[in-house]
Amino acid sequence: MAAGSTRIKELRYQVMLALYLPILLYSFSTFDLDEDTFAVKEVRPVVVGQENIVLGQPYRAKAYLTAASKVQLEAPDDRMSASGDSVLQMQTGNLLGEDESEKEVSYTALMQYRQVNDEMAQTRVRGNFTVRRPELVATSVATQSLYRRTLNQIRIDVPGLENQPLQLQTSTGQTVDGRQLELSPTGSNVAVQAYLPGGADRDPVFLGNKEFAVIDPPRPEIKVLNASGKEITSGDAIAKARPVIDFQIDPDAEFASTYSQDARYRIRSAKVSIRKGLAASEEIGTFDIGSGGKLQLVRQLRDAAAKDQLLIQLQGVVRINHAGEAIPVDLSDASRSFSFVLS
């Protein structure tokens, strides 16, 4: 009985094999499979790129499928280009208007890939990033203010665009290729605009604006020396026999160390008066002061007496700048007026 049952099972297996084996063989023959062929349950597009971009800095992203054979990448967005089978790139120079400082940019790309059945499939990949206008960084001795009619040397840097060429334009009409410029402003403020230079097929890209206040240099200090070279101040005595007064103008030490070409001073003349006793002062005259700063009054004081008061007011105090210009220095009456007693 057991032997008969086993025989029946073998006959049933042979019949099924004869029926279904040709069908299985035919099915496999319709696919060109090799050892690199595989099947996946789901194909999902992924794009990986920078989230924040400085205006003018190229945006780059890599797009791929979570599971697929070789991919063909296309960029229907005319702002973007595709390179190879995974790299997307977009130039960002024209993404912001001059009145915009930041914007979120979205894009779409197409990915085509071959399925196991040799048919082409297509899927979309989407991404976005934020482009922002960079902050201009000025490096100089005075980063916030510039000195009027003084040779100020400035360097402008743009973080994120260190390897890009720059063009600088000023509100005074000056244009410089590069990151450094020299300014000698005359007004109360000046602005510097930074651009990525244009070319035959593109316009310059405005990156940003940096404004500077313009101020006068620090006021100098006036020292007075007598004929012996000793420093004197108002109220001190000077010898009637040697009425030689030496006026020296010392620039602000920090200003002079940095702007030596713009820190030269000169006194053009001095108005001299004399007061005898309790009488009103009498003007003797206005006298030129040479480049050495000395005022000699030997002849003018020959009729003066001891204890007469000598009144001196300096006039025409100027600063000689890098261009050889004589610039009037605004000093108070008190700082340029002196009185001495003859002895």
Q: What share of the residues lie within helices? A: under 10%
Q: What is the CATH first-level class name of the largest domain?
A: Mainly Beta
Question: What is the radius of gyration?
Answer: 43 Å
User: Which CATH-level-2 architecture of the largest domain?
Assistant: Sandwich
Poorly predicted segments? 35-41
Our count of helices gives 2
Mean pLDDT, to the nearest integer, reads: 83
What's the end-to-end separation, in Å?
Answer: 157 Å
- Main sheet characteristics: 6 strands, mixed
- What gross morphology would you assign? rod-shaped
How many domains in all? Answer: 3
Structure in words:
- The structure is a single chain.
- This protein has 343 residues and is mainly beta.
- It is 10% helix and 45% strand.
- Strands 19, 21, 22, 24, 25 and 26 form a 6-stranded mixed beta sheet that branches. It has a 5-stranded mixed beta sheet with strand order 10-16-15-12-13, with no helix packed on it. It has a 4-stranded antiparallel beta sheet with strand order 1-3-6-5, with no helix packed on it.
- Mean pLDDT is 83; it is low at 35-41.
- Strand 21 and strand 22 form a beta hairpin.
- It has 3 domains: 45-132, Sandwich (Immunoglobulin-like), CATH 2.60.40; 137-215, Immunoglobulin-like, CATH 2.60.40; 221-342, Sandwich (Immunoglobulin-like).
- The protein is built from 2 helices and 26 strands.
